[in-house]
Amino acid sequence: MLNKQSIRSKTTIYMDKSLIKDKEILIKESEKWTEIQEILFRKMLRQGGHFSIGDRKYLIILPHKIN
């Protein structure tokens, strides 16, 4: 299961085309995931992109890095 610390505040997350503003929504959603699905979500939190878990579609947009 995800926790609040695993979801960075500057990361933008959409679930089924809706912007997720409350981390609790994702934490509740993660209670239904298998270990492999949770690993996928954590990986996508680091790299961003489009993906699906179950019947939900996610889009993760990472904040821009300043070099």
Summarize the structure.
By secondary structure, the protein is α+β, with helices and mostly antiparallel strands. It has helices spanning 23-30, 35-47, and strands spanning 12-15, 18-19, 49-53, 56-61.
- Give the helices and strands as they follow along the chain: EEHHEE
The overall pLDDT average reads 93
Distance between the termini: 33 Å
Q: What value does the Rg take, in angstroms?
A: 11 Å
Written description of the protein model:
The protein is of the alpha+beta class. The chain has one domain (4-61). It is built from 2 helices and 4 strands; from the N terminus they run E-E-H-H-E-E. It has helices at 23-30, 35-47, and strands spanning 12-15, 18-19, 49-53, 56-61. It has a 4-stranded antiparallel sheet with strand order 2-1-4-3, with helices on one face. The N and C termini lie far apart (33 Å).
